[in-house]
Amino acid sequence: MAEFGLFIGWGSPRAGKEAAAGKVFEEAVAYWNALQAAGEIESVEYVLLASHGGDLAGFALLRGEPEKLGRLNGAPEFERLTMRAGVCCDGVGVVSAAIDAGVIREMGAWKEAIADLI
């Protein structure tokens, strides 16, 4: 399983943009599924969060190779969908992520980097 990912988070739909938010979500799901079918990403997980008083309403986690994910983050269709989502929802963001064994590797690098500071 991939050790790297793109975390794509979003908040609540903006007032009056609920239907548009649903439309953009469907477009994004179709796009991400096509990326997986083409082998550009390894997998995608979709998560909707229960109401909890926070800003994050849901997210998608795209898993794959860091080089492919880096190219994807700058791809025109990816940027278009992210912009469209930002018009419809608060708090849209895309963040690179370490996953599973990638976390262990990153923590090792972090410990090494700070060893002389503690």
Give a written overview of the molecule.
The structure is a single chain. The protein has one domain: Alpha-Beta Plaits (2-Layer Sandwich). The mean pLDDT is 95. The longest helix is centred in the first third of the chain and has 20 residues, at 18-37. Helix content is 47%, strand content 22%. The chain is α+β, with helices and mostly antiparallel strands and 118 residues long.
Order of helices and strands: EHEEHHEH
By CATH, the architecture is named 2-Layer Sandwich
Q: What does the overall shape look like?
A: globular
Biggest β-sheet strands, sense, barrel: 4 strands, antiparallel
Major sheet: order of its strands?
2-3-1-4
Q: Which regions are unreliable across 5 or more consecutive residues at pLDDT < 50? A: none
Look up the CATH topology.
Answer: Alpha-Beta Plaits
User: Could you give the distance between the termini?
Assistant: 34 Å
The beta-strand count equals 4
In angstroms, what is the radius of gyration? 16 Å
So what's the CATH class? Answer: Alpha Beta
Number of helices: 4
Percent in strands: 15-25%
Q: How much helix is in the residues?
A: 40-55%
Q: What would the average pLDDT be, to the nearest integer? A: 95
Structural domain tally: 1
SS-derived structural category: alpha+beta
